Amino acid sequence: MPTYIVLTTLTDEGRKTLRDNPGRIREVNAEMEAMGVTLKDQYALFGPYDFVNVLEAPDDAVLTKTLMQLASRGTVSTLTLPATPTEDFIARLEH
After folding, report:
1. CATH code assigned at 31
2. Helices marked H in the chain
3. Fewer beta carbons within 10 Å, N or C terminal of the chain?
4. For the whole model, what pTM was predicted?
């Protein structure tokens, strides 16, 4: 299953939501799982991004639909980076 790194930035509304309900993070993670996206790892950050998420999805279409659904709420914006395991990357270069 493809792996993606998703950098998330909260909007003002997203920050208010988390201030009032920090458990919302778990709820959103469960929603992603229900849409077919597996959360492999997640970290809160300091800096220009608020979270880094390591996700797996069956394909780009499932991930795109999930992230568009979340972003349409106006609480986050995302930057998505497809990730290739290093050994797979090396194998592609060797052939």
Report:
1. 3.30.70.920
2. 12-20, 24-34, 60-71, 86-94
3. C
4. 0.91
